[in-house]
Automatic annotation (TrEMBL):
GO terms for molecular function: protein-disulfide reductase activity. Transmembrane segments: none annotated. PANTHER family: OS04G0668800 PROTEIN (PTHR34290:SF2), SI:CH73-390P7.2 (PTHR34290). It comes from Hibiscus syriacus (Rose of Sharon). It comes from the Eukaryota. InterPro entries: DCC1-like, DCC1_Trx. This is Detected protein of confused Function.
């Protein structure tokens, strides 16, 4: 939904973290494991925001800031961050995917297989 809405605004640059071209160096040093664990957004000034704050900033960028505006205020903020914490921890399993540890191991093995014949390959 954000990607579609962003077509009108052009304010969000989406990054495919699972792409072989993903570079932590180009993304404030955020490695795959870190960004798979919780949502991250990098603001135009380089500031990294996470969790509910990241959603709030993303929605603001496409004219929907009102959706998350209430999460700025207590006790809603505490509740929203708690709910997101549970979602972030279990979202892969909830959506029918393997747990993060298994995803990381599969990714590591895949990269190792691709690098078997390349002594300069970094895993």
């Amino acid at each position: 939904m954000l990607r579609e809405r962003n077509k009108q605004y052009g304010t969000i640059k989406f990054v495919d973290i699972s792409s072989d071209d993903y570079s932590p160096e180009e993304n404030q040093g955020l490695d795959y494991k870190t960004v798979m664990g919780r949502i991250h957004a990098i603001l135009s000034d380089g500031t990294v925001v996470t969790d509910v704050e990241a959603f709030r900033k993303l929605y603001e960028q496409v004219g929907l800031g009102w959706v998350y505006a209430i999460t700025k205020y207590e006790p809603i903020a505490t509740i929203a961050y708690s709910i997101y914490g549970v979602w972030a921890k279990y979202r892969l399993q909830i959506t029918g995917r393997p747990p993060l540890e298994e995803v990381l191991e599969t990714r590591r093995k895949s990269k190792a297989d691709m690098c078997n014949d390349n002594s300069n390959c970094k895993i």
